[in-house]
């Protein structure tokens, strides 16, 4: 055996092992995901892709430390995730998560101040990250004066300013118009190339998964189980019209819905989004 074979594989930054997540309410138990396992490595752009209701947001909430698994485990750098922490920051779809009475800069500073960062440093970091997302000129503007895309940039700047180990994004561009959405996907890619953060990104759009991710975990409809895991680093917005991209889209659609369509007796048409 060559000595190279003895080098251990890198440890994942984030590991989900056999994670089952449930909600318990008056109407009984809702099982959101079942036996979901995946490993996210440093600098991954890891995408959870599946139809609405398959438990993507629930998985993200569990990684965020807001809910605990019924079975299985979630670890970050080898330590069990038991509560929310500044090493895992979530960007949501609703940009009205920005309090309207705070300026853009105050919005970006707020979680840093809450986490004990001194005002002067928080201010510097806010200005730095607003510059990175192209909003330096809007630091003193109020959120209601910004477009949807600009609010998305503020939310991203605010999250990255916290320097999380993993950036968690729950359909962050879903509420934007198609053109703005593309711009944001592109800007996210540019930021990632520059900074190299680690990201766990949730979407129900096959095209967005291929464009944003380097690895994609396909989840079955409710309750979410792992259907497959794919590499997608070769795709970007630039390749979105190519035949390879179309073939990957169709293959993913088949993996997600093949059984359902066979059961229904129809061939079905591959679509870009899973349930739009
Ligand atoms: N707070 C809740 N209480 C009970 N059931 C919930 C709650 N949130 C989500 N669910 C259910 O859990 C399942 C997964 O939801 P969710 O994680 O939001 O899916 P996705 O993000 O993939 O659309 C769905 O069946 C949903 O109805
Ligand atoms: Mg969701």
From TrEMBL:
Kindly provide the name given to this protein in its UniProt entry.
Answer: NitT/TauT family transport system ATP-binding protein
Similarity comment: Belongs to the ABC transporter superfamily.
UniProtKB keywords: ATP-binding, Cell membrane, Membrane, Nucleotide-binding, Transport
Every copy of the ABC transporter domain together lies at 14-246
For molecular function, the Gene Ontology terms on record are: ATP binding; ATP hydrolysis activity
Asked whether the UniProt record includes Chaperone among its keywords, one would answer no
- Top-down, what is the taxonomic lineage of the species of origin? Bacteria, Pseudomonadati, Pseudomonadota, Betaproteobacteria, Burkholderiales
**The keyword Metal-binding is annotated on this UniProt entry:** no
InterPro entries, alphabetized: AAA+_ATPase, ABC_transporter-like_ATP-bd, ABC_transporter-like_CS, ABC_transporter_ATP-bind, P-loop_NTPase
- Where does this protein come from, organism-wise? Massilia yuzhufengensis
Which SUPFAM superfamilies does this chain map to? P-loop containing nucleoside triphosphate hydrolases (SSF52540)
């Amino acid at each position: 055996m060559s000595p190279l074979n003895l080098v251990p594989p890198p440890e994942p930054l984030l590991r989900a092992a056999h994670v089952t997540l449930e909600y318990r309410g008056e109407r009984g138990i809702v099982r959101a995901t079942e036996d979901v396992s995946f490993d996210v490595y440093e600098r991954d752009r890891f995408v959870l892709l599946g139809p609405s209701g398959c438990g993507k947001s629930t998985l993200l909430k569990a990684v965020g430390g807001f809910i605990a698994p019924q079975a299985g485990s979630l670890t970050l750098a080898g330590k069990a995730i038991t509560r929310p922490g500044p090493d895992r920051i979530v960007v949501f779809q609703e940009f009205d998560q920005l309090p309207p009475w705070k300026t853009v800069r105050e919005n970006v500073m707020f979680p840093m101040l809450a986490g004990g960062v001194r005002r002067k440093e928080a201010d510097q970091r806010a200005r730095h990250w607003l510059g990175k997302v192209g909003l330096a000129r809007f630091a003193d503007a109020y959120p209601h004066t910004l477009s949807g895309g600009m609010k998305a940039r503020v939310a991203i700047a605010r999250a990255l300013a916290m320097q999380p180990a993993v950036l968690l994004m729950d359909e962050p561009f879903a509420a934007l118009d198609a053109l703005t959405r593309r711009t944001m996907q592109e800007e996210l890619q540019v930021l990632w190339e520059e900074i190299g953060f680690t990201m766990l990104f949730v979407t129900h759009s096959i095209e967005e998964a291929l464009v944003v991710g380097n690895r994609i975990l396909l989840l079955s409809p409710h309750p979410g189980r792992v259907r497959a895991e794919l590499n997608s680093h070769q795709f970007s917005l630039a390749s979105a019209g190519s035949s390879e991209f179309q073939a990957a889209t169709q293959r993913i659609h088949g993996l997600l819905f093949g059984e359902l369509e066979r059961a229904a007796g129809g061939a079905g048409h591959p679509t870009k989004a899973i349930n739009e």
